[in-house]
Amino acid sequence: MKIGILGGGQLGRMLIQEALKYDDEWFTLDPAPDAPCAKISDQTLGDFADYDAVLNFGQDKDVVSVEIEHVNVAALYELRNSGVKVIPSPEIIETIQQKILQKQFYLQNDIPSPDFQIIQSKSEVNFPLPFVQKANTGGYDGKGVQVIKTDAELENLWDVPSVLETLVDIDKELSVIIAINENGDTAHFPVTEMVADTQLNLLDFNICPAQINNSTQQQIEVIVQKFIEAAKSAGLFAIELFLDKNGKVWVNETAPRLHNSGHQSQEGNANSQFEQFYRILKNLPLANTDSRGFSGMLNLVGEAGYSGKVVYDGLEEVLKLPQTYVHLYGKTETKPGRKMGHINVLADTREELLTKLAHVKSLVHVIN
Amino acid sequence: MKIGILGGGQLGRMLIQEALKYDDEWFTLDPAPDAPCAKISDQTLGDFADYDAVLNFGQDKDVVSVEIEHVNVAALYELRNSGVKVIPSPEIIETIQQKILQKQFYLQNDIPSPDFQIIQSKSEVNFPLPFVQKANTGGYDGKGVQVIKTDAELENLWDVPSVLETLVDIDKELSVIIAINENGDTAHFPVTEMVADTQLNLLDFNICPAQINNSTQQQIEVIVQKFIEAAKSAGLFAIELFLDKNGKVWVNETAPRLHNSGHQSQEGNANSQFEQFYRILKNLPLANTDSRGFSGMLNLVGEAGYSGKVVYDGLEEVLKLPQTYVHLYGKTETKPGRKMGHINVLADTREELLTKLAHVKSLVHVIN
């Protein structure tokens, strides 16, 4: 089958890597000649946000999907009209692309998400402080989001269509990845949890399973069911959640694609998010995704002050550790904050996992 | 690092697939434009048995290795002389390539292998029946090997340089995969066992760990140590073994490369033979390869009577089974006996494993 992916980054790379177990032809659309998928797919150089580029790329494919949500949706509608299978649906991509539509989707479908005001410009602000401003479009990896705490900070507001959202008093950040195939089979991965490295005060381990009580688990199950019913689309979706200090779960946002919070599934689950997504693209039976004990992930991010040809200092020490799996993304140039790879770790207990992750983190540095 | 592999078949494909976790440039030399590695490596079309083809291919690489042993060794010597790293050594490839040298290697290094006579032609035969004739060169996947049981069958003898070898009264067929890096670190995988499907009287499951007693394990450990000392080369080596009905272990033959008897390591061990081989090529710390319970593999082989565009009949049923992993090789055309893929299965007990493997085998058929 000819499978076309909009975007050729690390998510696409790990998808294709996993799916090399099967016989398909992989195509990617990405503007960067050295994109992570460049050498393992038939790459078309082009902008996935451009109507013509997406339409031309997709028209001879059996299925078109995305590894990033900032794609040209009009072209996806057109492709679907012309008979190309598009997963997930253009409707759900369009909804998720725009924070305003995304919030309205939660409201309409009784999915709990923080109270909000929609503004078209700065002048319309009428919302209690403190709040989060989420720009309607263009957000990614924390970009397009800012916290406004005081009256003085109001002047920092971006003058763009936005959602203003109540700041949740966060106890834990959680994530759940949902799979829906065209047959209507559904499944979800065990809930994962972002864990703060308290020493360095950084949020950077995602671990599985999350340490949550029955009430939290139940609230998430309800959210998952509501989302599945509302989405009306095959696809893999990552829902990022907040558990607040009163024990209530809120949806922060959803990604209509493979997600960083599912990377530990590569070795931590019976099948990974990449295998599951592949099966969705081909409408195959969904895979079992039971956990193999405790698993966690550390992102390898370019350190501040280093730009240029990447060096993974300390990586050889990491390779000596058992139950530790290095995943690099084939990016030659590092820059501050760039996601260059990740490391997955397995363990028998949560405590052992956190100790191992902290040790791995102390060993490796992404420099140049 | 620029890594060049002679051969672009399924072993190379699964190596590159695994190693996409790391940042390297992969090159393959293979005569088939549709070789399994064609789309995931920078492929040079050419014959790996040809001196000039191998020399030209290898000269700008950092390391050159093989995924098949029938390669031009003279060119590998030349490449090494010119400063290219060659793994495994041309010497050990040359020894293993030729059954006569291979037998002499076992004899010289006190590695137990069945009694033999070397012949240059049919007329020299002076060896007790029954015996196995192994042609000196060109053997692969059972080709170049025949059993001669009676005086009448002597006329079937191939009139080529050969090894004649005592027929072992086999209790079990075993395999052990050995890893040696340039630092001299060594490791080996748990011993695996070929299991006969008694219903169909076919040998086609390879399972791990083998069901063997302490004496057998001890004999294999001694063979492994002797091989490591004698090989004097970095590399990944698969030693195929016979356990005879008196409890003695014999070396049948050795492959200087990744091996079909290690495929279940993809999901069955903490790290696979492919990961281990990658680490050898880069002289990295060897990986832990502990077993995850019981694992086994079924080869997907083209059924008799079917040639043409492959169809994996029943594969969707297999995908419904938990702890079951399909690996296809990207070959579009099936023919009788062609290795098209394999399926790995995990289980908690040997009995459960064999039941699952037999069930999988009953479900899937490689036809067209």
From TrEMBL, chains A, B:
Biological pathway: Purine metabolism; IMP biosynthesis via de novo pathway; 5-amino-1-(5-phospho-D-ribosyl)imidazole-4-carboxylate from 5-amino-1-(5-phospho-D-ribosyl)imidazole (N5-CAIR route): step 1/2
Alphabetical UniProt keywords: ATP-binding, Ligase, Nucleotide-binding, Purine biosynthesis
Principal EC category: ligase
Family matches, as PROSITE patterns: ATP_GRASP
Protein name: N5-carboxyaminoimidazole ribonucleotide synthase
Keyword RNA-binding: no
Domain of life: Bacteria
Residues engaged in binding ATP: 99, 134, 165-168, 173, 252-253
